[in-house]
Design goal:
alpha/beta; about 325 residues; 6-stranded parallel β-sheet; 18 strands; 6-stranded mixed β-sheet; LRR_5
Length: about 325
């Protein structure tokens, strides 16, 4: 069986164990290594082309899922409850992940999303307790209700630059999440989107609109740092909304406001940031805004940035030395 995902697969003996109709097949191999161009895994490999229904015992044996090229939709509940599933590789043909597709995959650690993914459905990754990193392509426009709810180990997420909607409870109880950068394209954040993200402190949303739901940040470190009244009321009321607007504006306040903004941008540019550093001096990277964050904090947490502060410092020092000489 040939595959674009790696030569090692062609040397494996595969057995067709399910045939439910044209194009509906599952192949299951022995424990082996395989290569996808970037990384090597070892585990039970399962290939799936369409939504199949298997008995519960069979589903618990799946450890690595490779979705075949040509698949455009991961249907409802396809891998729901696969408690030993650890790795998922998607081809770039996948455009939609439907309701509960990977819900309750409690051992899921790594998922390679399609570069052309547009839609993540309700509860798609709900209770994937070991999932730590999610890197979304810029084609994703909607994250629906509870999509990453109770992903308690999720520490890093890069949202699509073209994201338009974050659904109710989309990231509820993501207890390890410390920062979130929301692109200006996002038109609406629904109720309880980040409810009980207890360590969430850095929230960057530059677009100053009011199309925000209730209780978005209740129970987060962020809301506790705003006003005591927010915590007292316990929901996203008018008072806490005004405080949140103050927070959004705060990244553009203070002596280094332009530098804060440049480092928190969804499209950070090295030359722009360096020009501001050169203008204000390297100490500007340590200037705090109203909530205690510096440009350095924003730059290091920014999921859209590949700029290293060390490179800025190095260039600054070399230029200063050149001027002295």
């Amino acid at each position: 069986m040939k595959s674009k995902l790696g030569k090692s697969l062609t040397d494996t003996e595969w057995v067709e164990i399910v045939a439910l109709g044209p194009g509906i097949r599952m192949y299951k191999g022995k424990k082996t290594h395989f290569y996808n161009g970037e990384k090597i895994w070892e585990g039970m490999l399962t290939f799936i082309r369409h939504n199949l229904v298997y008995n519960w015992e069979e589903r618990q044996t799946w450890e690595v899922i490779i979705v075949l090229p040509g698949v455009e939709i991961i249907p409802w509940n396809t891998f729901n409850g696969c408690s030993n599933l650890e790795t998922v590789i998607m081809p770039d043909t996948v455009k939609r992940i439907e309701v509960g597709a990977f819900c309750q995959c409690k051992c899921l650690v790594y998922i390679r999303l399609s570069r052309n993914l547009e839609y993540i459905g309700n509860w798609a990754f709900d209770s994937c307790a070991l999932l730590e990193t999610v890197i979304m392509p810029d084609t994703v426009k909607r994250i629906e209700v509870g999509a990453f709810c109770q992903c308690k180990c999720l520490v890093y997420i890069r949202l699509s630059r073209n994201l338009e909607y974050i659904g109710e409870s989309a990231f509820e109880s993501c207890e390890s999440l410390t920062s979130i950068f929301i692109p200006p394209s996002c038109r609406k954040i629904d109720d309880k989107a980040f409810l009980r993200c207890t360590h969430l402190l850095m929230v960057v949303k530059k677009k100053q609109d009011r199309n925000l739901g209730r209780r978005i940040y209740q129970g987060t470190a962020f809301i506790k740092k705003l006003t005591s009244e927010c915590v007292k009321h316990g929901f996203y009321n008018q008072q806490s909304k005004e405080a949140a607007v103050q927070w959004i504006r705060s990244i553009q306040q203070g002596e280094a406001k332009a530098l804060h903004s440049a480092c928190a941008s969804c499209n950070p540019v090295f030359e722009t940031i360096y020009a501001l550093v050169k203008q204000r001096g390297i100490k500007a990277m340590r200037m705090e805004n109203l909530f205690g964050f510096t440009p350095s904090h924003f730059l290091s947490a920014n999921p859209y940035s590949e700029i290293e502060e060390g490179d800025l410092v190095k260039k600054y020092i070399l230029e200063m030395m050149g001027e002295v000489v």
